[in-house]
């Protein structure tokens, strides 16, 4: 069967499974909708948390990032996995014991202030919409390539699927759907890795195969280093970033992970505090399966890509290359008119992405209108590496289709979690807690469903009409979470002297500073049209790492302001003392 037929079959089966779970897990109360009734087992919650966390960025983009960055890409592995250790040790059990539905709910009650709650809601919406926009576009790209439909239609299909299991089941439907999605995405990620590792090194375990020997006796990584240096790139196994920037990015990703609202809310779905710890530990284990495999896939894909396309005649190039040209994720411009693909260090184009024309070149290639004068003729988007990897390695069609189903599972699971955060922030933290305190449970549930419908429409519009900067800032959602939520949460747990004035001032300063830096040095919307160059970075800190600086500023502002103003009420200080006592806790409460 063809790849497209296999894809329709596998995607159809997985979607039918998601719909079935959504109908079975229909939410009947706000507690079901917000925290899945608080009765999810640690094993199921660990798998759901892993699926919630491993977005399209983890499934599609991370191995691609590592394949192009080499050693420097290790910051993503250290930051994103280290964040879960931080979450398990410092946040999950205490937040679960506090017993609130949402992060803004915790901040509003801990800081005895609706103003603090509102600031937290705004921060949650900024972080969540920044993150979810990329998920919806990722869904569109996968549908476009593998099912041969328009990208915008792919986004609409993805919106519909998420709407069904989020609208019907809320957190209950999303949790059990995410268990299924974890199984799909991890199977889809690992099967090609096993195949290619065996194919290249004779060892089926990709983590070992990455450091293994090839048929000729040379080590795979040594060969990749040689290929890189021959093409003018830095050695794959050597880094170029400064020690400070590596530290800043890693820490920003760690504390950003620990501050992401859609991840934190997962620990309110288990019955007990000890279950929250177990969930975090199991989630880390489930995440590690994919994260320890990603560097191996990066090495396999990078080696195969270079050997397949470099110095090859376009007329002899495999069919997968020409198929992927239509998505805009790979492009060739024959600058010296020799019919060969020259792949060397340097940019093949003037802009971030190639702009296609409707014309075909002398060799049948899709012409691009923004090729620059550098020698390199090949543009490769990092997102192609995982999706096209099975095709490059000539794996069976069902494996190629399986990767498409896995990519959709990863994007949809995270999109659902983020959209629920947006929904609960509006229905629970704004309407129930502030605007209409006497609203009935039925009315609040209806408000939550309306909010999730509106959020899905907005997210879909971001996917169909993506602002030029969305793709660039999705990863920076972690910096935004680090700059805003993390200090307020950690100080709220461990500093009983922290008051509402300090928390509010810290959150506002932190997220404002991060937004300013992100826009000025990543998207170029403040003062100039182009992003400012790396030579102007503050303290040599990249936008991806600036969340660390903004977080430190947030902590300083919070502590200083809290010490200059009145101490929190005695009952609040007592709550802070109590949530650190390692004992059982009651059910999550909306009151």
TrEMBL record:
First-listed, main subcellular location of the protein, grouped into a coarse class = membrane
Q: Show the Gene3D superfamilies listed in the entry.
A: Sodium/glucose cotransporter (1.20.1730.10)
This entry carries the following GO cellular component terms, namely: plasma membrane
Instruction: Give the molecular function GO annotations.
Output: transmembrane transporter activity
Transmembrane annotation, as ranges? 6-25, 77-95, 116-134, 146-167, 179-200, 246-268, 280-301, 398-422, 443-465, 471-494, 501-519, 539-561
| Pfam annotation, one family | SSF
- Annotated localization: Membrane
Q: Which family does it belong to?
A: Belongs to the sodium:solute symporter (SSF) (TC 2.A.21) family.
Q: What is this protein called?
A: Cation acetate symporter
Q: Give the originating organism.
A: Hanstruepera neustonica
